[in-house]
Amino acid sequence: MRTNENTLLEGHNVVLVPYNASHVPRYHEWMKSPELQQLTASEPLTLEQEYDMQKSWREDDDKCTFIILDKQQWADPSSREEQCMVGDVNIFLTDPSDPSLAELEIMIAEPSYRGKGIGKEVTNMMMSYGVNKLRVKKFEAKIGLNNEVSIAMFKKMHFQEVSVCPVFREVTLLLTVDDSVRTRLQDDTAHVKERDYRLTCSNRHELLSQ
């Protein structure tokens, strides 16, 4: 999605940046993992296919993707951005007849970053971006039945279970953005700063320390 191609979102522990070609090799290595393939219901792709997918996601109007970076590590200018990658988060506008409905996906690919609240922080940041920038009014999450941690996180964030598909072994959760959800998102993301990605890349340490 061109909307976020130069957008950086800075949270407490993470930085969200656009999915660029430089991120593809690390992402490709992640997706060789049978565990991640199962959790994300994904098929393994060749590296060339992964580059094509990145380009498609960048250009398609119905897909908004950010790469999750470790903020502290990324603030060190000696660290290459690909070394700071933790996972990714996506919004898919899946229903042309209802552009206010968005499917939300998050993947914490690095095992050492799981169970530390990063998933919740990133989800709040992405939902806030979706509501304020993309006019999203309903969020949908489709999660594998074996991914109990992710299901529990979304339910704690007030998503409601609406259906279970035994064939695909996944549950669908839904959250309607009402005034109470808007207020909660505003409170939970009041610290988040939106920055110019290219400018921040060239001056990481100074800008992120402000």
What would you say this structure looks like, in words?
This protein has a single domain (2-190), classed as Aminopeptidase (3-Layer(aba) Sandwich), CATH 3.40.630. A hairpin with a 3-residue loop joins β1 and β2 (14-18). The chain is globular and about 45 Å long. It is built from nine helices and nine strands. It has 210 residues and is an alpha+beta fold. The chain starts with 6 loop residues before the first strand and ends with a helix. Strands 7-8-6-5-4-3-2-1-9 form a nine-stranded mixed beta sheet, with helices on both faces.
Q: Beta-sheet strand percentage? A: 25-35%
- The neighbouring-strand order within the major sheet is 7-8-6-5-4-3-2-1-9
Q: Give the C-alpha Rg.
A: 16 Å
Could you give me the name of the CATH homologous superfamily? Gcn5-related N-acetyltransferase (GNAT)
Q: So, CATH architecture?
A: 3-Layer(aba) Sandwich
Question: What count of domains describes the coordinates?
Answer: 1
CATH fold-level label: Aminopeptidase
> What low-confidence regions span 5 or more consecutive residues with pLDDT below 50?
none
Helix content: 25-40%
Structural class: alpha+beta
Number of helices: 9
Global mean pLDDT: 93
Q: In whole angstroms, how far apart are the ends?
A: 28 Å
- Name the overall outline: globular
Main pleated sheet: 9 strands, mixed
Give the strand tally. 9
Order of SSEs, N→C? EEHHHEHEEHEHEEHEHH
